[in-house]
């Protein structure tokens, strides 16, 4: 499909959730907006799909939970979406001295949580440390969260509002130092540490502090850090955004692969193809919802393999005929309702990192499991009673591990993921997996290479690259609207609106909101 117009106020490259947020805000402000999406549908990584032939259940195929999407943004755009709290925050099955047990964290935390900590650790000290630590992180979250939809604050402005000890533990020193100083139990340490490693390949002592930045983003959503299940799946979120954009007058063209973006101080030119026809339009601004590494290529720079982002996750989607029973005896409806931590003791996380850094699939693969259908059964469609979805997210599986033999390496990684789960089950998970219309097990695995092939995320990096601190360095230039909103490139008419913006990553809409406001402030 070609555009009927040759000139727009804004062209958005990429119809993922951030691009749709930008389009909705700008179209509501009266600007002419065109969104170009390479795939035959919008939504990017935030989509729902019937992944298994003959099965009506619609899984959140890539992105799967929501925390950072601000309530203000939802209200601004009048989005008709529901986000449901999970009744369990997390459950971590363990085997100690040959005896199965586990650590339960309720939402909200209550007596069962305190008792679970005591049974695992032998007293109340570790739970007291847990509550103190998360009270401290909440203090930082309460300072940062209100700034995410405003001009970038400086680092000094944030630091001056936070206790120096909290700033040291979460921002200045590697996160591992704080985890080791504040907690004694290996399992508790690991549960805390995992939020710094989701989609991020790093040691807890990495001097780059990338693990600290990842940790912070996992805890600042709406000031609470709660991760919720989107009712109807992730596709319901992006469908609502697409509707908001088109209702406001934005034009969306799918199956439009952008081949070049050219910009200057006067405006931008965007060219795309639909398989048969090449089309070029002019715009006052081009907003990029693709990764900055990809944008540089579209803007004419040579491809630079050395700077290409590298994703580090294994995503496995399952459809089950029934939930499996756990060796610890905990109710599966409780254990699977939140985040089920597997092989994520602190020492296991560091050992897995060492394996992967040495080029080996971790011998014991850490990961997390989520059962969204316990919170939102609507995604099951007309599935038989007892059916459930399951999502596994594996850590420390960088793209480089899969480069030489992607098929065999993915099979090995999947096998080790299943081993980590089966260690804690009465019956192997394979015995609970449903079969599709052809009789094949309903298991779908995605390596970083698969993510890149499906979604054009370079290296399969789910954040488009390493996350930045959600504030500006003290000496940063904040002279232009784009700089003040953290969405600038080297070309004034081309702005970042996706996860590659300074406040990007996850399903947040922050990049889209902030790019749109930079445009409006510039007009």
Please give a structural write-up.
The protein has a domain at about 5-45 and about 65-80 and about 230-310 and about 470-520: FAD/NAD(P)-binding domain (3-Layer(bba) Sandwich). Strands 1, 2, 9, 10, 11, 12 and 18 form a seven-stranded mixed β-sheet that branches. A seven-stranded mixed β-sheet has the order 7-6-14-15-16-13-17, sandwiched between helices. It has about 525 residues and is α/β, with parallel strands linked by helices. Helix content is about 35%, strand content about 20%. The two termini are about 30 Å apart. The chain has helices at about 15-30, 70-75, 110-120, 125-145, 155-160, 165-170, 175-180, 185-195, 210-220, 235-245, 290-300, 330-335, 345-355, 370-375, 400, 405-420, 450-455, 480-485, 510-520, and strands spanning about 5-15, 35, 50, 60, 85, 90-95, 100-105, 230, 250-255, 255-265, 270-275, 280-290, 315-320, 340, 365-370, 390-395, 445, 495.
Topology at a glance:
Layout: E1 7-13, H1 17-28, E2 33-36, E3 48-49, E4 59-60, H2 71-76, E5 83-84, E6 88-96, E7 99-106, H3 111-121, H4 125-144, H5 155-159, H6 164-172, H7 175-182, H8 186-193, H9 210-219, E8 229-230, H10 234-247, E9 251-253, E10 257-263, E11 268-273, E12 278-288, H11 292-298, E13 314-320, H12 332-335, E14 339-342, H13 346-357, E15 367-370, H14 372-375, E16 388-394, H15 399-402, H16 406-422, E17 443-446, H17 448-455, H18 481-485, E18 494-496, H19 510-522
Helix pairs in contact: 1-10, 1-19, 8-13
